[in-house]
Automatic annotation (TrEMBL), chains A, B, C:
InterPro entries: N-reg_PII (IPR002187), N-reg_PII-like_a/b (IPR011322), N-reg_PII/ATP_PRibTrfase_C (IPR015867), N-reg_PII_CS (IPR017918)
Gene Ontology molecular function: any one: enzyme regulator activity
Gene3D superfamilies (alphabetical): 3.30.70.120
SMART domains attached to this UniProt entry: P-II (SM00938)
Family: Belongs to the P(II) protein family.
SUPFAM superfamilies given in the database record: GlnB-like
Protein name: P-II family nitrogen regulator
PROSITE patterns, per the entry: PII_GLNB_CTER, PII_GLNB_DOM
PANTHER family per record: NITROGEN REGULATORY PROTEIN P-II, NITROGEN REGULATORY PROTEIN P-II HOMOLOG
Taxonomic lineage from the root: Archaea, Methanobacteriati, Methanobacteriota, Stenosarchaea group, Halobacteria
One cellular component (GO) term of this entry: cytosol
Keyword Phosphoprotein assigned: yes
Length: 117, 117, 117
């Protein structure tokens, strides 16, 4: 038990790491998650390229956002599982953020609080 | 008035419940919302099926995420309205989370704080 | 330095303002961001129209959501940069919300805390 605290772990990672992250989360005991297709950029300047003689700029890269709300499992375990599964060591591996959550409700049962996560 | 507090209510529900949720929110006095197409899984193990003799696994289900930031209307009223409108009683009905928000700005006017929500 | 605090600035703006917002954020020293295609409605009642003699209701408008997590740069600077770049003065310009973030991890390095943002 993590003292009734609820956290939302938000990770933005490479799309081809989604499968590994899902498996790592299930193994960490936190299988529930929500996935969104996003695009983004990090701290590197935009890359320029050439296509049929035209110069173009790639400044947003396809990523997936994974949101995983937990209460029984410590957020740190979820963060570690995601970071480990998503890492390649190359620029663009992504970021993980931990946000506080004040309440949760399971729609099917109407139950609320940490037990509802 | 809920004491100047701003909350973000984040709900992940069945796509075919979006219409009912929008109507319920308007009736609760909280019509403003942002909708994202997402996919996700809850606590049930993945389902396996057969297609043309091949086994496949359905592990992510299409859902919609609804974000509704409120200040005058209590977050609890918004949560109750969504939960009531989105419930079928079957597994997969979704979850609702309440997050703290520290500030809000209305872009058109530049106004900030709870009044800007 | 803003005292080790990490904030997530969430903005929902007109899609055709994304370019201006990206440039404004880069100029403000906060180039990193995540973009999601969303739809939504604000406080105005839905608009009705006519198409081939049929009445229809437009109640969700296409928007983009921009998430920008910062620690060194004050969240207020990011909010101001986005609001300034996204404003037209017409209804529908969007909203900006500031959420607290408790921790951040850079996946490539495993580094955590405000330095990892
Ligand atoms: N501060 C941030 N705010 C919001 N989204 C971010 C932030 N930093 C990174 N992201 C998201 O994560 C994705 C990957 O970022 P990336 O890994 O390139 O970060 P970085 O800081 O440049 O680190 P690296 O040097 O390892 O590339 C971005 O495309 C963006 O979607
Ligand atoms: N802890 C969570 N974190 C993030 N997203 C979640 C979480 N739990 C559920 N979701 C989202 O809500 C959707 C529906 O979840 P679901 O209703 O199946 O939850 P559940 O815990 O399995 O409850 P039930 O037993 O009623 O099915 C998931 O597909 C996912 O997108
Ligand atoms: N309270 C809110 N919660 C969640 N999303 C919101 C909220 N208010 C606005 N949005 C998002 O921002 C988009 C634009 O909103 P909009 O600018 O129309 O807000 P408004 O309050 O009606 O202000 P205005 O009078 O300037 O139009 C909406 O389509 C929705 O996606
Ligand atoms: Mg990078
Ligand atoms: Mg379920
Ligand atoms: Mg409006």
């Amino acid at each position: 038990m993590s003292d009734d605290e609820i956290k939302m772990v938000v990770a933005v990672v490479r799309p081809d790491k989604l499968g590994d992250v899902k498996q790592a989360l299930a193994e960490a005991g936190a299988p529930s998650l929500t996935v969104t297709n996003v695009s983004g950029r990090g701290s590197q300047p935009a890359k320029t390229g050439q296509w049929r003689g035209e110069e173009y700029v790639v400044d947003l890269h396809q990523k997936v956002k994974i949101e995983c709300v937990v209460s029984e499992i410590p957020a740190q375990d979820v963060v570690d599982a995601i970071a480990d599964a998503a890492q390649t060591g190359e620029p663009g591996d992504g970021k993980i953020f931990v946000l506080p959550v004040e309440d949760a409700v399971q729609v099917r049962t109407g139950e609320s609080g940490p037990e509802a996560v």
